[in-house]
């Protein structure tokens, strides 16, 4: 009897150990399953967050591209407008010298060479009036160019600012020289000795070459600044 009781106790001990071990293992499995589930949830959250961040980056990148494109187009438009006005200024200057001044000067000489004081005085007054009108047109074109130059300074670099300063100064000097040449051509000193105009002509040519070089430098700098956008 004792032997049977001992055997049953032994079996119960084994069963108890089994069930305890099973319970522990099952607990471990449950915990592992929960850990896996938690990891999966965390992975999904990371994926969602990553997808949102990627989407935000895409939006930001697209926005930056659009902003750069807009900035490029606006800057290019202003640069092109500047060169258009610069070309118009030179065209107006050439028109004044090559077309408009000739008839005014010829009419003045015809009247002035008559020799009568009254006619000469009238010729001088008429000539000065015509010259003032030409200078007014030239100065108006110069003002338009200067205004556009100042507007470009709002978007230009310090290097471009420096080049625009040089151009403005040279254009002002060239305009003054041109006016001086026109005035001298209507003076008695010039009629007596036309060679006195040569120093002014040489000065005007030097100023013209300097302006061309500055224009080329400005064009190069503007292209560089557009490429950097």
Overall description:
The chain is 92% helix and 0% strand. By secondary structure, the chain is mainly alpha-helical. The termini are far apart. The model has no long low-confidence stretch (mean pLDDT 78).
List keywords for this structure.
single chain; 229 residues; mainly alpha; 5 helices; rod-shaped
Strand residue percentage: under 5%
Radius of gyration: 45 Å
**Beta-strand segment tally:** 0
Order of helices and strands: HHHHH
Walk me through the topology.
Elements: H1 2-112, H2 117-152, H3 158-185, H4 188-192, H5 198-227
Structure at a glance:
The chain is an all-alpha fold and 229 residues long. It contains five helices and no strands. The mean pLDDT is 78.
């Amino acid at each position: 009897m004792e032997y049977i009781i001992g055997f049953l106790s032994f079996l119960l001990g084994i069963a108890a150990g089994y069930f305890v071990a099973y319970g522990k293992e099952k607990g471990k499995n449950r915990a592992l399953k929960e850990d896996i589930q938690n990891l999966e949830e965390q992975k999904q959250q990371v994926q969602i967050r990553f997808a949102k961040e990627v989407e935000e980056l895409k939006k930001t990148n697209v926005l930056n591209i659009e902003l750069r494109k807009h900035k490029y187009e606006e800057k290019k438009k202003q640069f092109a407008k500047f060169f258009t006005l610069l070309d118009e200024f030179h065209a107006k200057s050439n028109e004044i010298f090559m077309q408009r001044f000739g008839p005014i000067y010829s009419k003045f000489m015809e009247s002035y060479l008559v020799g009568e004081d009254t006619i000469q005085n009238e010729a001088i007054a008429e000539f000065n009036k015509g010259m003032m009108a030409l200078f007014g047109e030239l100065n108006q074109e110069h003002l338009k160019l200067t205004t556009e130059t100042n507007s470009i300074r709002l978007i230009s670099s310090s290097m471009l600012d420096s080049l625009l300063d040089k151009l403005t100064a040279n254009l002002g000097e060239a305009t003054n020289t041109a006016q001086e040449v026109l005035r001298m051509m209507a003076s008695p000193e010039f009629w007596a000795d036309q060679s006195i105009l040569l120093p002014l002509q040489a000065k005007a040519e030097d100023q013209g070459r300097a302006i061309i070089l500055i224009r080329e430098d400005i064009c190069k700098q503007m292209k560089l600044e557009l490429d950097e956008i």
